[in-house]
Design a protein that fits this description.
It contains twelve helices and four strands; from the N terminus they run αββαααββαααααααα. A hairpin with a 2-residue loop joins strand 1 and strand 2.
């Protein structure tokens, strides 16, 4: 691994060279964190929209919304990236600023903050235990830096996660809608005949029977988010840190965006003077493939497990 440090000039954090596994861990952290945040945002919205289309909206409105959802799923990711830079970033900046102003005082009370005393940086305030973790552990999430936006525009992981959520929302919505429509009409009418409200009927029949389908839709959206390249490459100020500073600029990046960013300058070398730059990035791509395979494997296991206990088999 020391040989990789010497031969791959761009495998650095700041001016310090790092090994392949250290580089991969940092890129993997940004990939997984952004994808999970996008999933948390997108799945509840997608399920709500799918339920509205399938069980609440009038027929014509439901058809129109279905066409719009299918159209959004076909938009290329670079369009989302351009839209994110030009439109979404100015919209999110005041929201993120409000989050910083609102929550930073509470985080300071909980974890303390770094202040200058006689020219030395000293950590002061906070509750016992929380202030020690915030001062000594860089990965500890409960610090005032969690909501710090002083470095510049809102081109951070939080914005990237919002972009990813918007991108995977049509896919999850379309699949959930098709799953909800498959609920047997007789079971829905039986629940309504017993005096259930429409929402009670949905919670008793539609959601239990569509549970495996919702898991499949969420995992498909997660797979799309893990491999996303251009949108995050355009909206993120890339960094290679392992922390929870999702509102900070230059903190995180993803495997796919690192490959796209560094491949043009990567050298394959010559037979007499081989270079590890391109093999380095190819290995990152293999790691992303393995991650996607593991996610799909887990999703298949969850779906098969849920399928045996779903209402469809009652």
């Amino acid at each position: 691994m020391e040989e990789i440090q010497a031969d791959v000039g761009f495998a650095r954090v700041g001016s310090e060279p790092i090994s392949f596994w250290s580089f991969a861990a940092r890129a993997l952290w940004g990939t997984v964190l952004s994808s999970l945040m996008a999933l948390v945002i997108a799945v509840p919205l997608a399920i709500g929209i799918a339920l509205f289309i399938s069980h609440y909206a009038p027929r014509r409105l439901a058809q129109f919304l279905g066409y719009v959802i299918d159209l959004l799923a076909a938009i290329p990711s670079i369009i989302y990236g351009m839209w994110g830079m030009s439109t979404l970033e100015p919209m999110l900046r005041p929201i993120f600023s409000w989050i910083e102003v609102t929550f930073r005082p509470w985080l300071v009370r909980l974890a303390g903050e770094e202040v200058q005393v006689d020219g030395d940086a000293v950590w002061q305030g906070g509750l016992p235990g929380f202030n020690y973790a915030a001062e000594h552990w860089d990965w500890w999430p409960i610090t005032p830096d969690l909501v710090d936006m002083s470095a510049g525009p809102a081109r951070n992981l939080a914005m990237g996660s919002v972009i990813l959520a918007i991108m995977i929302l049509p896919i999850i919505t379309a699949l959930c809608r098709e799953v909800f429509i498959q609920t047997p009409r007789l079971q829905e009418e039986a629940a309504m005949a017993l005096g259930a409200t429409r929402w009670e009927m949905i919670t008793m029949t539609v959601l239990p029977m569509g549970r495996s389908g919702m898991v499949s839709a969420a995992m498909l959206g997660l797979g799309r988010a893990l491999g996303e390249t251009m949108a995050l490459l355009m909206v993120l100020s890339a960094g290679l840190e392992i922390n929870f500073k999702i509102f900070g600029v230059g903190q995180h990046s993803t495997i796919a965006s690192q490959i796209a960013l560094r491949w043009p300058e990567a050298s394959a070398g010559t037979p007499d003077n081989p270079s590890l730059e391109q093999p380095f990035l190819i290995a990152l791509g293999l790691l992303l493939f393995v991650l996607t395979f593991v996610v799909n494997f887990i999703a298949r296991a969850i779906v098969n497990r849920r399928k045996d206990f779903s209402g469809a088999n009652a």
